[in-house]
Amino acid sequence: MSQITLLNSTQPGFKQQLDQLLAWEAVADTELQSTVDTILRAVRTQGDTALLDYTTRFDGWTPVTPQALILSDEHLHQAWETISTTQRTALQQAATRIQTYAERQKLTSWQDTEPDGTLIGQQITPLDRVGLYVPGGKAAYPSSVLMNALPAKVAGVAELIMVVPTPQGETNPLVLAAAHLCGVTQAFAIGGAQAIAALAYGTGTVPAVDKIVGPGNSYVAAAKRAVFGQVGIDMIAGPSEILVICDGQTNPDWIAMDLFSQAEHDEAAQAILVCPDADFIQQVQASITRLLPTLQRQSIVTTALRRRGALIQCRDLTEAATIANRIAPEHLELSIADPTNYVKQIRHAGAIFMGRYTSEPLGDYCAGPNHVLPTSGTARFSSPLGVYDFQKRTSLIMASPAGAQQLGRTASVLARGEGLEAHARAAEYRLEA
Prior knowledge:
By secondary structure, this protein is an alpha/beta fold. Helix content is 45%, strand content 16%.
């Protein structure tokens, strides 16, 4: 029998057990953060020289000059021509759906003129230059290229700077082909904390950006946290997560494979089933045991399930929703009879997959909504990556002569109440006697 934690919400200590299961402290690890700080400082002060050194040390190949880190337009186009027709079609189909979804997220500028002629409004403008971090350690993610680049393009971002790790100097043709399809401006063969530093501070070769988006490992997450303020970031991404709520009527093999789909990302990933049916939980456990040996990434999945996986028996589906809201998962599958009504009980989740036929990987690749999602409970206050992450909102105010009278008197009273005389006098100078 495979090792996975079995919990019951009716048992004493359940909340403490759940909290322990959910804990993820890697990004706050002081030793890890010290290593990241050293890397950031080296790249900031030494630029390309540090990038060459860290690429040799961490990626296992030796670029002779900074130019060797550049993935040229020709390189990207060649990758597009090299992949199969089937792969090109799949990338194009996914890109079309992702872009169509993103188009509906665009914020628009607005202005309102009041009766006295005063204008207030909001101007929406895109960021100038964005850095796209594409993971490339334990697996390659062409889907992340699409999910990061296309909303930025829809927003109107002029320059997309992509960085991607290349272990042993090997590039992934699908990743580069996706970059070509999305119109990435520049691409570089660098990864890890050093890539985040390069995007944040700029080097002789890599341009500094305004915002960095895209998930990565613990070192990438810690680096993004550290450079926030120098640049914008999308979120601090933790390990991949899936929570499945099931009423016990779905094929247990489907549920087991859905749990595997996130557990195979890395050993720290989390896969949880919540179900009121004890017999069904046993069936899923049996499916896990039987199907696990058939996986190419069996070792990673086994470790993830043992460390942070769980099969949780709850009282009923109402309690399952309460547990889900407590966890606030990255991915939430509602494998139940009536997900449309049930979803109203869910307040916190990065993405919700409704119904027995909606497997989580559909969202990872091609359904349309973004797969860059809040993790580690941050769905309580965060949202999926979207076009709005690449747009800025600027307030517009234009007081008419009449409007300046009313607003000026109000501002004067409040400014003097705060003891800010110059504020008050600036408003009062425009008041009519």
